[in-house]
Amino acid sequence: MAVSxxxxxxxxxxxxxxGTVQLDASCATVRDALSQVAERWPAxxxxxxxxxxxxxxxxxxxxxxxxxxxxxxxxxxxxEGATITIVPAVSGG
Length: 93
Description:
Elements: E1 3-6, E2 20-23, H1 30-40, H2 42-46, E3 59-63, E4 66-67, E5 83-88
Parallel strand pairs: 1-5
Antiparallel strand pairs: 1-2, 3-4, 3-5
């Protein structure tokens, strides 16, 4: 069973219009999954990770319903069939 990466509308142009990217190869962590996405669409991951490979400040990533911020960050383990959701942070006043 593949891992799914759900993209916000703002990132779909960098994945040729796909709203969900299916990863066929096995991934142990969120970082591994993003590495696989970067192999196909590097510009997409450039908008999610900094040049140092860290999560950008205004981007949130969830595995299932849990934010990786409260887990192990990009080292958060994922299971086969997991859904990773990338969500832009919203702020304002």
